[in-house]
Structure formats: structure tokens, C-alpha cells
């Protein structure tokens, strides 16, 4: 089931191979080894490409672009007019960098961007973090996977220290003006709507979906297949499969639409619904605490035979481990 869901999501978000028309560059020997090495690429005369840069085959570099000495541009990449690749930045094959985008920075550390990514207009990716823990001279890192679309005006920062990384997986759609801060760990097949803001050290699992103008507090964990309603301020963890909304977001039930779209069976959804009601919607006569109800669910062998229920229970429990923030508040709707 999980493999099928991941495959379905991947099919939706995989981008076709980016094709560009190769143009032979008649470079003279005085133009440096970078241009000599990319004889099938097009580099506009108004671009500034350092002779030590590594340029692949079939690359197109437009006017007023800059490519730094330590940069590596993979085959079939397109750098549109006025885009910049700085510092120790590795841009994988088939990427498109649109006008005004800035990748990397002349700082210690590295930015690695995988294949077939689209970097939108005026996005800033792989620059210094906004964290006072950062010390000038420390190495800091960003690693982005394949087939991501990062839209206009997004900002994605490197880690705050050399022992950590900011990581983004594969097949994510990151809409305009989103922010992913230092040391975040973002999974795959996620959709972040406009103005979604993640503080430092946030962990987002796979197949999540945010509506617009969502703010997530630093160190929060967002579970797989969850949904964050528009305008939510998320200050605590969101367990897997759940939906939250509101200023200081509260649990609003299971993300039924997301589960349906990702191929969860009716049986799995019924099991999740039953488990959710046992923990968060006790009967009027029930006097047990949340912790007692969660422990009781952990003894429901029949329900726990569902992998989805086991994952949900694990997600809730680990949110209360030392150093974690607990889960978003919930209303105890009593059942008659």
C-alpha cells in the first residue's frame, strides 16, 4: 500500500526530462577551460562564467548570469537571464534556474541540488541561515533531491552548523514565497502552498499538504499524509494522517481527503477512524485521561494489525519524547 501511494504521488509530481536545443559555442582559447570543456553548450557573451567552473554538455547560460569558480553545472541545465550560481554549488542535470534566482553563496560548506529541479524567479536557495548560532567561517550545507519545483521568491537556507544539514527530498511542490529555514528535514511528495513558513529544525515527513499562509514553529514535526489548514500557526507536532487548523492550530480530525487521494483502502481508513475516536473522542461516561486512552489503544491488538494505525500511534507517542513539543491541542468531543 505505502509503495503504491508513493508511486502514485511520484507520478503526479515527476517533471518530464527538460529538453534544450544544444548550440555549439565557437570559443577561442582565450575564453578559458570552462568554455572549452562545454563545446555543445550556449553561453551568452554577456554572462560571466569563471574559467574554473565546471560546465556540462548542452547547457544554456543566458545574459547577465554569473557562475562562480567552485560551481558545477550539470548537463542540459538552463540558466535564464540574470540568474546566479555562487560558491561551492553542485547543480544536477536538467535543472532550470529562472530569472533572478540565486543559488549558493561564497561561504564555507556546500549546496547540492539534484536533477530536474525548477528554481523559480528570484528564489534564494543555499544562502546563509538566519540563526545566531551560526559562526562566521563554519561550514554549512543544503542538500536538495530531484524533481522539485521551487517557485518564485522562495528562500531555502543552509544549516546553522557543520554537523547538520538542511535537507529536501524529491518531487516536492514549493509554491511562491515559502521559507524553509536552517536544519529543516523535508521529505518527498509534499505540497506547500504560498507563504508557508518553516522555522529552524522542522521535520516534515512525506505526502503532507499545507494551505496558504501557514507558520510552523521551530523543532515541530509534521507527520506523513497530514494537512495544515490555511492561516494556521502550528506550535506543536502534527501526528501522521491528521488535519489541523486555526490560530494555534488544533486537531480537526483525520485527513480523509488526503488519505483517499493517496490510495488508502476503505478498511485502512475505517481502522484509523476507530483508533482516532478511541483516543480523541471518548464516550461521555469515559473518565480516563488522554494518556490512559492512548495506552489502551496500544493494547488493541486487532487495530494495531493495521500498519497505518501502528504508525499513527507511534507518531503520537514519539511527539512526547524528551525534547519534543507534544502534539497540537485537541477538543475532546464526547460521544453519547
From TrEMBL:
Output the superkingdom of the source species: Eukaryota
> In what residue span(s) does the UDP N-acetylglucosamine O-acyltransferase C-terminal domain sit?
237-328
GO cellular component entries: membrane; mitochondrion
Identify a single GO molecular function assigned to this protein.
acyl-[acyl-carrier-protein]-UDP-N-acetylglucosamine O-acyltransferase activity
Keyword Ubl conjugation tagged: no
Which terms does the UniProt entry file under GO BP?
Answer: lipid A biosynthetic process; lipid X metabolic process
Kindly state which keywords UniProt assigns to this record, in alphabetical order.
Acyltransferase, Lipid A biosynthesis, Lipid biosynthesis, Lipid metabolism, Transferase
What InterPro entries has UniProt attached to this entry?
Acetyltransf_C, Acetyltransf_C_sf, Hexapep, Lipid_A_LpxA, Trimer_LpxA-like_sf
This protein is called what?
UDP N-acetylglucosamine O-acyltransferase C-terminal domain-containing protein
Report which gene this protein is encoded by: LOC100831733
Amino acid at each position: 500500500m505505502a509503495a503504491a501511494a508513493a508511486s502514485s504521488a511520484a507520478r503526479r509530481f515527476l517533471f518530464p526530462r527538460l529538453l534544450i536545443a544544444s548550440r555549439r559555442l565557437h570559443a577561442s582559447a582565450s575564453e578559458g577551460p570552462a568554455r572549452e570543456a562545454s563545446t555543445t553548450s550556449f553561453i551568452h557573451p554577456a554572462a560571466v562564467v569563471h574559467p574554473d567552473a565546471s560546465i556540462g554538455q548542452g547547457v544554456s547560460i543566458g545574459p547577465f548570469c554569473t557562475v562562480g569558480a567552485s560551481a558545477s553545472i550539470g548537463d542540459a541545465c538552463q540558466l535564464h537571464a540574470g540568474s546566479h550560481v555562487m560558491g561551492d554549488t553542485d547543480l544536477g542535470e536538467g535543472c532550470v534556474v529562472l530569472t533572478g534566482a540565486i543559488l549558493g553563496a561564497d561561504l564555507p560548506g556546500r549546496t547540492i541540488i539534484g536533477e530536474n529541479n525548477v528554481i523559480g524567479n528570484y528564489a534564494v536557495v543555499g544562502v546563509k541561515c538566519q540563526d545566531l548560532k551560526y559562526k562566521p567561517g563554519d561550514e554549512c550545507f543544503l542538500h536538495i533531491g530531484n524533481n522539485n519545483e521551487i517557485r518564485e521568491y522562495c528562500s531555502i537556507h543552509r544549516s546553522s552548523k557543520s554537523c547538520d544539514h538542511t535537507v529536501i527530498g524529491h518531487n516536492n511542490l514549493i509554491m511562491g514565497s515559502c521559507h524553509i529555514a536552517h536544519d529543516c528535514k523535508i521529505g518527498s511528495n509534499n505540497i506547500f502552498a504560498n507563504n508557508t513558513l518553516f522555522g529552524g529544525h522542522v521535520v516534515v515527513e512525506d505526502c503532507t499538504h499545507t494551505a496558504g499562509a501557514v507558520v510552523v514553529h521551530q523543532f515541530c514535526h509534521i507527520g506523513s499524509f497530514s494537512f495544515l489548514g490555511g492561516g494556521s500557526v502550528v506550535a506543536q507536532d502534527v501526528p501522521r494522517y491528521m488535519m489541523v487548523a486555526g490560530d494555534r492550530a488544533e486537531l480537526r480530525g483525520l485527513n480523509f481527503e488526503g488519505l483517499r487521494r493517496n490510495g488508502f483502502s476503505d478498511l485502512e481508513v475505517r481502522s484509523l477512524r476507530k483508533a482516532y475516536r478511541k483516543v480523541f473522542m471518548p464516550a461521555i461516561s469515559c473518565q480516563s485521561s488522554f494518556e490512559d486512552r492512548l495506552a489502551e489503544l496500544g493494547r488493541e491488538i486487532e487495530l494495531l494489525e493495521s500498519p497505518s494505525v501502528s504508525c499513527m500511534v507511534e507518531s503520537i507517542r514519539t511527539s512526547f519524547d524528551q525534547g519534543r513539543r507534544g502534539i497540537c491541542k485537541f477538543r475532546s468531543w464526547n460521544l453519547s
